[in-house]
Structures are given as structure tokens and as C-alpha cells.
């Protein structure tokens, strides 16, 4: 029964990883850039919500109401001012730019909030600690189910938006061939900016769930980036449903590893990532990099 | 009325100057063929007008206002559409999606999905097919239809028949009838001189980035075209 519980908890944990990964996947899918500041942006969002919670007394989920629009605007401005310029400098420049941005965010957070760890769990109420007990050994936490449901809704909503709306069609056209998209009247730069805005907002959502579920500090971003990156690679670069699947595989690997021995938790996730990378699926991803398109 | 005015336009590819001081005007409703040998600067000139290639010198004015600094997507909204060489359809889109993506920010006008599919009946049964699965002729027809979805006043078509079978070329040139009837101004780049001269009312021949010939197609002799095309007089057989 322990194993069944491990798989269930892994699937729920995978929801959080998928939420972290979806913005990363969207930015890669549309702009072909890997945003190395993604984890730090998520932590920045968590700190913003923490500040709103502390100063206004509202719960972290209510604090998302003003925080998400703020982060959407921040994402839009981030692209217009920083990423758009770096995109013109070739594929390596955005990587270096977002790496620098990650360092700037970490140090700014350290300066503004000091190195103390924080949590949003206390302000979230019963949802942070409550659970449904299914059997003696299996339980479903409210928060885990909420995170997974949110991940499915966000990824499903994004997928629906990409497939069914005119804006989504423009985004897919730009992802396929930005130059041609421009020549049929699509403002590629504006599409990129909106994709970045959505990615930053989803990162904020993930950051808040991280804060409610556990603790965070100014240097939590890179760890979350690694998990998000692993989920994206396991699920297939640029594929949104694949990202959900990748998050779940990573989550299950970690909880099964933890069931064997708590110290194997993170290691098991990394091992699955490396196995996927060495598999034909992983080789096709490397082909993706060489050809610039899926192999 | 002059719709497009190109004045002393220059364009470069790095150190190579592809277009050198080209000047011409295009009247509304005119069909102009741009001919010339490979590397003469035809595609570069067309891409410069479309905003897909930077202007190194000179001015381009369209409908009375200069296009300097106007990005390509805004030129589309002003009524300049470009059908690129190689069609460049979105391969993961169906024919219908390719048309719709171009129609979203289009100027108002007669062209929409319904009227375009009426004008190109061959595309009607293909509307759900992926662009990557179309034949060359079908792709070219889709690319022209996609450009029409933006309701252009000026349509730039690069290498109309390049790489197409004779049957596909016939199909594509049938589209030209639609364009002529709609009164759309067209600049087409064509390697098939016979086709170019029979379709267009006027021809401009580029040679090493300069205009070597600018004349009405009516009454134009073969010698005049050959001289401009190759830059020398052909020796006549004794």
C-alpha cells in the first residue's frame, strides 16, 4: 500500500512541477528560448504574494487577484525591454540574459527580504494542512488535489487557447515561422511579449503553491528551475500536455525514491531525467536542437 | 494614381550590394513583372518593399506616405501583401488555418474566408489538409489566397512558378485572372519570361541590381528583353 500511496503523492507533486514547467515550456515552444530566470520569477511572485498577505491580512489565494495582473504586466515589460533585444542577438544571448536576470532577481530579493525562509502555508488556512483519508495508509491532501487541478486547468486552458482562439493561432504561427508570421500581419514581437506575460503569471501561480506547500527564500529559484526543466524535457520540449505528463513522472520518481530511502528522493528524479535524455526520446530532443525543429 | 513609388532604393546583403539606386512607380491596378537573371536583386527589392529586408538607401512611398521605419506587419495592414519565394506556408497548419491567421488583422475589404475559397475553388476540398501535405501548385495557390486574406492593394509575388510542374503553373496562373479581375495591383517576380510578358502590362528587368529595362509589354521585342536580361546584344546568326 506504501507504493500505491507513493505513486498518488507523486502524481499530486507532479501537478506542482507541471505548473512550474508550463511557463518554461510555453516560452520555449513559442520563442525557442530557455528562460533560466523562470524559477526566480516564480519565487519573486511568491514574495509579492507574501508581502500582500502580510500587509493586507488577506489569504495568499486572494492575494493572487492583484498579484497575477502585476506579474502579467511585469512579464510583458520584461520582454519588451530585455528579452526582445536579446532575441536579436542569436540563440545564446537570451540564455545569458536570463541567467543574468536570475542573479539580479536573487540578489534583489536577498536585499529586500533578507535570507530568512518564509512560508505562505500559515496564511492559507486549513487547505494547507487538511486531507481526505482514503484508507489507513492513503490520503489525499486538499492542497495537492488543488495544485493538480490547477495545473490541469492552466495547461488545458493554455492548450485550448492555442488551438481554438485567433490569438493562439497567431502564437502557433509565430512559433513555426516568425518571419512569415510578420509578413501576414502578425506582430511577432507583441506575440512574444504576451507569451512571456503568460509564462510569468503561471510561474507566479506555481511560486505561490510552492510557498503554501512548503518554504521558500531568495535562493529557492534555481532548484525549482531544475525541476521545471526536467519536467519539460521528460514530457517533450514545447508540448503542454507533455509537460503535465513530465511533471507527474518526475513527481512519482521522487516519491518512490523517497519511499525506498528519503535521501534518494531528488536523486531518483534526476536519474529518470537522465534515463529519458539517453533514450530515443531524448535523442530526438537533441535532434530538435540541431535541426531547430522536432525530429 | 501612383500607388507605390520606389526612389533610388538600395539594399545590401552584408558587403554585397544587391539593389543599386532603383527608381520606378507602380500605378493602382497595374500588373508589373520583375524579371532578371539569378542574383539580379529581384527578391531583395520585393522583400525591401514588403519590409522583410532593411533599406540601405533611398525612399519607398506607398499611397502617398513613406514606408521608412514601418515594420512588415504594419505594411500588411496598410495593404501590402507578400507571397514569399518557396511559399513559406505554416506547415503544421491546415489550409484554412493558414488563411485565417492572415485574415485576423486584415484591412476591411472584399476578401474573407468565404470569398477567397469561392475565388479559389480548388482549395475548398483541401481546407482541412495540412499545408505540408499539399502539392507545389496547391501550396502556391494557398500562399496567394493567404495574401489575399489581408485585403491587399499591392500584392508582391516572388517566383510565381519556381519549382512547379507545368500543370501546377497553369493552376497558379489561373489565380492571376482572379487578381486582375479584383483590380489588385501586382508586382510579380517570374523566371518564365513568356509567362511574365503575357501576364503583366509592364516589365522591369533588373541587371546586377540596376534597372536595365522598364517598358510596356505590348510591342516589346525579344531582342530588347534579351539585351536587358543578359546585358549584351545577342549575335544574330549570319
TrEMBL record, chain A:
<dbReference type="Pfam" id="PF02653">
    <property type="entry name" value="BPD_transp_2"/>
</dbReference>
<keyword id="KW-0812">Transmembrane</keyword>
<feature type="transmembrane region" description="Helical">
    <location>
        <begin position="224"/>
        <end position="244"/>
    </location>
</feature>
<comment type="similarity">
    <text>Belongs to the binding-protein-dependent transport system permease family. LivHM subfamily.</text>
</comment>
<feature type="transmembrane region" description="Helical">
    <location>
        <begin position="58"/>
        <end position="78"/>
    </location>
</feature>
<feature type="transmembrane region" description="Helical">
    <location>
        <begin position="140"/>
        <end position="162"/>
    </location>
</feature>
<dbReference type="InterPro" id="IPR052157">
    <property type="entry name" value="BCAA_transport_permease"/>
</dbReference>
<keyword id="KW-1003">Cell membrane</keyword>
<keyword id="KW-0472">Membrane</keyword>
<keyword id="KW-1133">Transmembrane helix</keyword>
<keyword id="KW-0813">Transport</keyword>
<dbReference type="InterPro" id="IPR001851">
    <property type="entry name" value="ABC_transp_permease"/>
</dbReference>
<feature type="transmembrane region" description="Helical">
    <location>
        <begin position="6"/>
        <end position="26"/>
    </location>
</feature>
<feature type="transmembrane region" description="Helical">
    <location>
        <begin position="264"/>
        <end position="286"/>
    </location>
</feature>
<protein>
    <submittedName>
        <fullName>Branched-chain amino acid ABC transporter permease</fullName>
    </submittedName>
</protein>
<keyword id="KW-0029">Amino-acid transport</keyword>
<feature type="transmembrane region" description="Helical">
    <location>
        <begin position="191"/>
        <end position="212"/>
    </location>
</feature>
From TrEMBL, chain B:
<feature type="domain" description="ABC transporter">
    <location>
        <begin position="4"/>
        <end position="233"/>
    </location>
</feature>
<dbReference type="InterPro" id="IPR027417">
    <property type="entry name" value="P-loop_NTPase"/>
</dbReference>
<comment type="similarity">
    <text>Belongs to the ABC transporter superfamily.</text>
</comment>
<keyword id="KW-0029">Amino-acid transport</keyword>
<dbReference type="InterPro" id="IPR003593">
    <property type="entry name" value="AAA+_ATPase"/>
</dbReference>
<keyword id="KW-0547">Nucleotide-binding</keyword>
<keyword id="KW-0067">ATP-binding</keyword>
<protein>
    <submittedName>
        <fullName>ABC transporter ATP-binding protein</fullName>
    </submittedName>
</protein>
<dbReference type="InterPro" id="IPR052156">
    <property type="entry name" value="BCAA_Transport_ATP-bd_LivF"/>
</dbReference>
<keyword id="KW-0813">Transport</keyword>
<dbReference type="GO" id="GO:0005524">
    <property type="term" value="F:ATP binding"/>
</dbReference>
<dbReference type="InterPro" id="IPR003439">
    <property type="entry name" value="ABC_transporter-like_ATP-bd"/>
</dbReference>
<dbReference type="Pfam" id="PF00005">
    <property type="entry name" value="ABC_tran"/>
</dbReference>
